[in-house]
Amino acid sequence: MVSLRTTAALLATAAIAVGATPARAATPAAAAGTLYREHCAACHGARRLGDVGPPLLPGSLTRLSRARAAQTIARGRVGTGMPAFGHTLSADQIRSLTALIYTPPARAPRWGMRRIRASHRLYFAPGSLPARPVYRADPLNLFVVVESGCHRVAIVDGDPPYTILTRFPSHFSLHGGPKFSRHGRYVYFASRDGWVTKYDLHRLKVVADVRAGINTRNIALSSDDRYVLVGNYLPHDLVVLDARTLEPLRIVPAVSESGRSSRISAVYDARPRGAFIAALKDAREVWEIPYRDRDLARHLSIRRIRLSAYPDDFFLDPSYRYLIYSARSSDHVEVVDLDSGRAVARIPMPGMPHLGSAITWDYRGDPVFASPNIKTGLVTVVDMRTWKVVRHIRTLGPGYFIRSHQATPYAWVDIVFGPNRDAVQVIDKRTLKIVRTLRPEPGHTSMHIEFDRYGRHAWVSIWERKGAVVIYDARTFRVVKRIPMCKPVGKYNVYNKITLSPGTSH
Ligand code: HEC
């Protein structure tokens, strides 16, 4: 995959060098358009939808400031296919190109069935690869580590000496957690620019690849391993793929009951319901899409559940009966009973909870969920029978991820926002008290924790280009290993994911 993409990038650069002629155009916008066509379109697509390079549309650039974008254009990015234009283009030209890429296109970009089909690649047909792993490690204790800084994925043995079995290039900016097939053989990734990749964890090979959207939120895999559902921001739709081959089966436009077109804010599999749950971002609705005993290519039905606010972030309780969601700039979260379709509780959570990361356990005989908060240094613990806050646990600052495991009495939370971003704090699930503060690499951001299948070791990411994964003994809190990694973010343990461990999100 690497070689293919770099070759394409080199070819594109050559084509540009040959074809370049000075641009003269009447208006600044037209001038920018001409510059774009000459210097950028070969890699980023004539309509800015992405090709060798990522899409250059406002919705795809939300994490990049204009200043950083201008700098990227001028200096390029070392080690990637993005060339430097500081010598070819003037500061003014770079400014107008920057303005252009943050301007929405005149016509809403489309990504229909024809383009999805044309992007589809099946490298290995179902059944063509033997099932036996090509390594000796326990295939259920593998970790899939996303190294975001280098657009690649590492597959790491979860047992000592923690060997990296392989690394492979991913599409630009993987997004949302990868999803694992029932028995843990396959893992599915989604990238922000719409690519869905299926990877064989036994043979260590990419099996299939398809571009299902322009700007994708996340994917869900049906618990019977038959369908992948892709939730897109752009276009406003859901795409159903055949999970065996990633062939596209159908597109479902995201249109609310009142006819409003909407982005999809997230999709999840609800295993006991035999259904997908999809939340609309620009409409007060969630959808339940049953797949059990159905052929989604022929019949797809949507059950609409009305909400009182626009869902931003949510999680499903372990029974998959309740949807707990937050709305942007709201000071509470709402609980909806998916069976009756009615709101059953409101929980005051003013600190902007990151519900997508919430975990659950039993506290003094009652099931609770716990969520970090993005704006305040609190972990909120909520009783799932009464939907009352049990405790706000004060931490050193706002966090993003909380993780635990059924076999450990501790929950670990990162503190990624604020001056204590190098810290990870450990909460005793029995007392709801903080018992440890760890600083795996003082002064360097640490984030996202994941346990091995036994709950014996906790893996923490040092979120930097020259970062690492630091492995702790979860009982003694001693570091047992440091594996250098390129800006690692999420790490996913196969066993914990396929068994729906209550200590991690799904
Ligand atoms: C030879 C191919 C190529 C050409 C030509 C090219 N780019 Fe890129 N560009 C890329 C690649 C590949 C990346 C992704 C780099 C990475 O991995 O971080 C990229 C990244 C970018 C980014 C950062 C996007 C993000 O989300 O982080 C911007 C902005 C950008 N390019 C703008 C431009 C502009 C403007 C032009 C024309 C002046 C241009 N590029 C020409 C290949 C190219």
List keywords for this structure.
single chain, 506 residues, Cytochrome Bc1 Complex, Chain D, domain 2, Methanol Dehydrogenase, Chain A, 2 domains, 5-stranded antiparallel beta sheet, binds heme C
Radius of gyration based on Cα positions: 23 Å
The CATH class of the largest domain is identified as Mainly Beta
Instruction: Classify the beta-strand content into a percent band.
Output: 35-45%
Number of contiguous helices:
7
* Ligand species: heme C
Number of domain modules: 2
Structure explained in plain terms:
With 506 residues, this protein is mainly β. The chain has two domains: 2-101, Cytochrome Bc1 Complex, Chain D, domain 2; 116-124 and 168-439 and 469-483, 8 Propeller (Methanol Dehydrogenase, Chain A). The protein has seven helices and 33 strands. The chain has helices at 2-19, 28-39, 41-44, 66-75, 91-101, 113-119, 494-498, and strands spanning 121-122, 142-147, 152-157, 164-169, 179-180, 186-190, 195-200, 205-211, 215-221, 227-234, 237-242, 248-253, 264-270, 275-280, 285-290, 303-306, 311-316, 322-327, 332-337, 342-348, 359-363, 366-372, 378-383, 389-394, 402-403, 410-414, 424-428, 433-438, 446-451, 457-462, 467-473, 479-485, 488-493. The strands form eight sheets. The protein has a five-stranded antiparallel beta sheet with strand order 1-8-7-6-5. A four-stranded antiparallel beta sheet has the order 4-3-2-33. Strands 9-10-11-12 form a four-stranded antiparallel beta sheet, with helices on one face. A hairpin with a 4-residue loop joins strand 19 and strand 20 (342-348). Helix 2 (28-39) crosses helix 5 (91-101) and helix 4 (66-75) crosses helix 5 (91-101). The radius of gyration is 23 Å and the shape is globular. The protein starts with a helix and ends in an 8-residue tail after the last helix. Mean pLDDT is 92; it is low at 1-25. Heme C binds next to helix 1, helix 3, helix 4 and helix 5.
